[in-house]
């Protein structure tokens, strides 16, 4: 594992668990709060510092779709050295969500699913709030680790907190069950141990810095690193279909049933 991420993870501490329905969030903190200053995309657009000619309408992707996209881009980099994702697999996942929510839309299916669940998502946001100095979150759904996101720049994380919560909350809504048992702090530590043992590949980022890609038996992740500092790291718990980017079979579709 690259030294900047390894150093960061070695000093991670967790805040008090926040829970709402079947989702739990452990806020992530670190004493390593000296970080690069930068604008998030929304800040840059608001201040007219950049112009985007093509975009994805700003719709939040669920954590499951994000994990599938992470895996497919990693596979593309490994095979072809190209930043390309398997759009068939991603759209299949979106279709499964739309089908579950009984959303009929030829375009913008993800946006329509989120719009249908807007009230529910707002309830998650009210309960799972941002903490001062927070730099990330580790999320449980039905008592099991779903994934984590780390953004050491506290200002940037605060801006992105609600978007990240909604990303995981969408899957929590679709996978509603009774909260699982088990020591979640132990589960969090075990997940970090899995992250540390992932296979790593290093690629030049499209922009500044280096894009590190990680793959383990049940974990995929990525880390954007610039000037030996973590910019944004994300890791997800995955199954075989997420790892390979295959189109969902019946059992995968069934997992999305409410």
Question: How would you characterize this protein structure?
Answer:
The chain has helices at residues 3-10, 41-46, 63-80, 87-100, 109-116, 118-127, 154-174, 184-196, 240-244, 250-254; strands spanning 13-14, 18-20, 23-29, 136-141, 144-150, 199-204, 210-215, 219-226, 229-237. Helix 3 packs antiparallel against helix 4 (87-100). Strands 1, 2, 3, 4, 5, 6, 7, 8 and 9 form a nine-stranded antiparallel beta sheet that branches. The protein starts with a helix and ends with a helix. It contains ten helices and nine strands. With 258 residues, the chain is an alpha+beta fold. The protein has one domain.
SSE blueprint and pairings:
Layout: H1 3-10, E1 13-14, E2 18-20, E3 23-29, H2 41-46, H3 63-80, H4 87-100, H5 109-116, H6 118-127, E4 136-141, E5 144-150, H7 154-174, H8 184-196, E6 199-204, E7 210-215, E8 219-226, E9 229-237, H9 240-244, H10 250-254
Antiparallel strand pairs: 1-3, 2-3, 3-4, 4-5, 5-9, 6-7, 7-8, 8-9
Describe, in short, the structure shown:
With 258 residues, this protein is an alpha+beta fold. The protein has helices at 3-10, 41-46, 63-80, 87-100, 109-116, 118-127, 154-174, 184-196, 240-244, 250-254, and strands at 13-14, 18-20, 23-29, 136-141, 144-150, 199-204, 210-215, 219-226, 229-237. The N and C termini lie far apart (38 Å).
């Amino acid at each position: 594992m690259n030294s900047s991420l390894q150093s960061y993870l070695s000093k991670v501490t967790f805040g008090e668990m926040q829970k709402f329905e079947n989702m739990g969030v452990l806020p992530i903190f670190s004493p390593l709060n000296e970080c690069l200053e930068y604008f998030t995309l929304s800040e840059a657009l608001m201040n007219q510092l950049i112009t985007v000619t093509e975009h994805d309408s700003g719709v939040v992707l669920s954590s499951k779709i994000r994990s599938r996209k992470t895996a497919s881009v990693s596979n593309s980099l490994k095979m072809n050295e190209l930043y390309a994702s398997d759009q068939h697999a991603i759209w299949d996942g979106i279709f499964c969500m739309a089908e579950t929510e009984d959303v009929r839309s030829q375009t913008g299916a993800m946006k329509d699913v989120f719009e249908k669940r807007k009230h529910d998502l707002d309830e998650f946001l009210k309960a799972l709030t941002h903490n001062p100095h927070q730099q990330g979150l580790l999320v449980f759904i039905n008592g099991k680790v779903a994934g984590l996101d780390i953004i050491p720049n506290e200002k940037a994380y605060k801006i992105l907190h609600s978007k990240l919560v909604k990303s995981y909350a969408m899957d929590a809504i679709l996978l509603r069950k009774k909260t699982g048992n088990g020591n979640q702090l132990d589960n969090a530590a075990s997940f970090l141990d899995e992250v540390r043992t992932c296979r790593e590949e290093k690629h030049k980022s499209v922009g500044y810095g280096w894009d590190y890609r990680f793959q383990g038996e049940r974990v995929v992740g990525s880390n954007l690193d610039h000037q030996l500092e973590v910019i944004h790291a994300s890791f997800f718990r995955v199954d075989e279909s997420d790892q390979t980017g295959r189109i969902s079979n019946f059992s995968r579709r069934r997992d999305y049933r409410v």
